[in-house]
């Protein structure tokens, strides 16, 4: 049977990429696709590296118009203020005047999924901030994890290709639990540190408001004397760092794919500003080589116990966007967007990002004039000789569009002394043009071991379960064994536990290469507050109004909120014949959307006992380690859980004869958040 013409055309396009050496698109052989061309092993990446430029350019233009990575995001406006004059460190004007208010726009995002994917998948989260300073736009483009998977930007297409849906069937969506990602990991040991973070609770943040942000790469701060210091940037949430548990994240993905963006939007709409402190780690240039890691290696963090984080200012997000597409979707971030006083290091990942982000934006936003889109416009006047191009939005007047010129009296002129302008730090570079990586980048296991050593028991349990789940989704048994063998270089207990879950063989010579720990890495040590926490109050006709009023007044005073949940919308009658309006039903909401559940006493308790919705609320709240409050007659609802729950952590179960004492205990448990000491069934 003859094939139709469409099939014949497809046949001619098919290419088998099997054995044989790598080539460029021009057919030129390539013997190293892991390292960009640099001036010396630790030097800057060279623009003449046509192999890097071809590979990254093709990657940047693979998909339009959706972002290739960080496609699903949410944004908000706000402002930043520095705490004190930092002119001794940097000549950046917005960091030198505590009275100056700098507008900002922040975009939070996932990495791997398409725009339509859920918010709560296990993934790295993007955390990008645009400062609209008086000297031009400055961007800190980072993630919610302080390290990255790879050391050189030339490998970025390989990383993302591996974690994206597999090309033969475009599955799975927004997930790393599949063969190609883990095949890349076991063949790329430098990924191990970021993989440890990805398997930790940090990969399923409770909200954008409660996750840290990191600039990841090493930069320079330069002052007016031309002196520099190395710097890393941190965003610390004032509400602390909090996560979901995995079962909860999976259920939310099905019940509300917009969970994180809805949380951000609703809190700002409700007058709860989102606050982060900007912190910096500062390193003197003479200390560049004093550590057992390379400060230019973005797969390594700078332990806060060695190089403290100095909190230098606060960012407040207090305004939602007016048009999601015009603002959140069209905003363009780039680590090359710097202002005088902030400069680059020779971090090979950063060096590649300086090219790739701009290249991507030209493709995604329709040409070289994307800076003229309102959300991307700087505050100072743009004054140069760039003209025309797709989507030009300004009407540029005058005869000249070049410099130098005489016809326009030499204007616009090159910035003179006393006029704000950017000057690169004059670093001496001396080295052979070479495609190789510095030997100082070769330790891939000491910091992952430090991360493991720093975790609390519940965080370690989460990491083990995450590895088991992720690798359990992979069909290739060889990948299972190779990953377990890699974990043997991190910690023997970790390798043993993961091997048990996968049916793999624990490595015989597993060892933890360090005794070091960094308490700052554990979420156990984060800030905790009842502010903006949300409580579901389950009611039926006949509830105790005194107990209800006491709890709701206390929640409001503490900055928390609540929903009244019942079997149907409308008024619910209290024992004193007054009513309270029900705002949610068991069909429209679920326990996963709340931080705690409370049921006051009253005759309604008996009727609640037989409702499936109540049983579901209590069981999910219990199994997700959240606070349960039962008072008066509602204490009988303990029978919906397994026996003996009264003594479990986070179960506030009292007759409520002393209402004030009960309310205090409930708020204390709510502030704690999760009660991981609890033994769940």
TrEMBL record:
Q: Which residues bind heme?
A: 67, 107, 156, 353, 357, 364
Q: What InterPro entries does the entry give? A: Catalase (IPR018028), Catalase_AS (IPR024708), Catalase_clade2 (IPR024712), Catalase_clade2_helical (IPR043156), Catalase_core (IPR011614), Catalase_haem_BS (IPR002226), Catalase_immune_responsive (IPR010582), Catalase_large_C (IPR041399)
Cite the active-site annotation: 70, 143
Cofactor(s) this protein cannot do without: heme
Q: Does the keyword Oxidoreductase apply?
A: yes
Q: Say if the entry is tagged with keyword Kinase.
A: no
Query: Which keywords label this protein?
Result: Heme, Hydrogen peroxide, Iron, Metal-binding, Oxidoreductase, Peroxidase
Q: What is its EC number?
A: 1.11.1.6
Biological process (GO) annotations held by this record are: hydrogen peroxide catabolic process; response to oxidative stress
One GO CC annotation? cytosol
The UniProt regions of compositional bias labelled Low complexity, in chain numbering, are: 504-520
What is this enzyme's catalytic activity, as reactions? Answer: 2 H2O2 = O2 + 2 H2O
Residue span, Catalase core domain: 23-411
Give the molecular function GO annotations. catalase activity; heme binding; metal ion binding
**Pfam family of the protein (one):** Catalase-rel
User: Into which family does the record put it?
Assistant: Belongs to the catalase family. HPII subfamily.
Protein name per its UniProtKB record: Catalase
Organism, by scientific name, is Desulforamulus aeronauticus DSM 10349
């Amino acid at each position: 049977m003859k094939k139709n013409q469409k099939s014949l055309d497809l046949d001619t396009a098919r290419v088998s990429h099997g054995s044989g050496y790598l080539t460029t698109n021009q057919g030129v052989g390539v013997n190293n696709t892991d390292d960009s061309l640099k001036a010396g092993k630790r030097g800057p990446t060279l623009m003449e590296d046509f192999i890097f430029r071809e590979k990254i350019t093709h990657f940047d233009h693979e998909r339009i118009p959706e972002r290739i990575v960080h496609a699903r995001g949410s944004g908000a406006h706000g402002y930043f203020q520095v705490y004190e004059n930092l002119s001794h460190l940097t000549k950046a004007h917005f960091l030198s005047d505590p009275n100056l208010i700098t507008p900002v726009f922040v975009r939070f995002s996932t990495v791997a999924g398409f725009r339509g994917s859920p918010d709560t998948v296990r993934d790295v989260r993007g955390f990008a901030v645009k400062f609209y300073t008086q000297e031009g736009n400055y961007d800190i483009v980072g993630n919610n994890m302080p390290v990255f998977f790879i050391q050189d930007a030339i490998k970025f297409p390989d990383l993302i290709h591996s974690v994206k849906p597999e090309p033969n069937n475009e599955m799975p969506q927004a997930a790393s639990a599949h063969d190609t990602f883990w095949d890349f990991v076991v063949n790329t040991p430098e990924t191990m540190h970021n993989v440890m973070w990805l398997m930790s609770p940090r990969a399923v943040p409770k909200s954008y408001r409660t996750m840290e942000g990191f600039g990841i790469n090493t930069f320079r701060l330069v002052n007016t004397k031309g002196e520099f210091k190395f710097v890393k940037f941190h965003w610390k949430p004032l509400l602390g760092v909090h996560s979901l548990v995995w079962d909860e994240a999976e259920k939310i993905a099905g019940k509300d794919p917009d969970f994180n963006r809805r949380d951000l939007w609703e809190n700002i709409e409700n007058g709860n500003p989102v606050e982060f402190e900007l912190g910096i780690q500062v390193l003197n240039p003479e200390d560049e080589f004093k550590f057992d890691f390379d400060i230019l290696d973005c797969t390594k963090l700078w332990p806060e116990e060695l190089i403290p984080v100095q909190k230098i200012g606060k960012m407040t997000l207090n305004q939602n966007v007016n048009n999601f597409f015009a603002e959140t979707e069209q905003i363009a971030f780039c680590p090359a967007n710097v202002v005088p006083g902030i400069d680059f290091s020779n971090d090979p990942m950063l060096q590649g990002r300086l090219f790739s982000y701009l290249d991507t934006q030209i493709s995604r936003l329709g040409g070289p004039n994307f800076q003229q889109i309102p959300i991307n416009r700087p505050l100072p006047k743009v004054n140069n000789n760039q003209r025309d191009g797709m989507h030009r939005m300004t009407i540029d007047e005058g005869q000249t569009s070049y410099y130098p010129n005489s016809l326009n009296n030499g204007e616009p002129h090159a910035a003179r002394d006393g006029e704000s302008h950017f000057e690169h730090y004059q670093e001496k570079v001396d080295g052979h043009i070479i495609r190789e990586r510095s030997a100082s980048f070769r330790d891939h296991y000491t910091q992952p071991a430090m991360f493991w050593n720093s975790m609390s028991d519940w965080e370690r349990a989460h990491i083990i379960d995450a590895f088991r789940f992720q690798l359990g989704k992979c069909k290739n048994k060889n990948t299972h064994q190779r990953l377990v063998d890699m974990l043997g270089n991190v910690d023997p207990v970790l390798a043993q536990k993961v091997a048990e879950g996968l049916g793999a063989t624990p490595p015989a010579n597993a060892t933890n290469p360090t005794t070091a720990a960094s308490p700052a890495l554990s979420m156990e040590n984060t800030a905790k507050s009842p502010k903006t926490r949300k409580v579901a109050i389950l009611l039926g006709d006949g509830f105790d109004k005194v107990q209800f009023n006491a709890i709701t007044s206390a929640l409001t005073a503490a900055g928390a909120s609540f929903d009244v949940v019942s079997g149907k919308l409308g008024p619910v009658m209290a024992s004193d014949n007054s009513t309270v309006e029900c705002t949610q039903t068991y069909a429209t909401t679920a326990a996963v959307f709340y931080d705690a559940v409370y049921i006051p006493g009253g005759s309604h308790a008996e009727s609640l006992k037989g409702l499936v919705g109540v049983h579901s609320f209590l069981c999910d709240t219990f199994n997700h380690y959240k606070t349960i409050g039962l008072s008066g007659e509602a204490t009988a609802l303990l029978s919906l859980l397994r026996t003996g729950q009264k003594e479990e952590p986070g179960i506030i179960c009292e007759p409520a004869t002393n209402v004030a004492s009960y309310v205090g205990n409930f708020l204390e448990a709510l502030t704690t958040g999760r009660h991981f000491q609890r033994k769940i069934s």
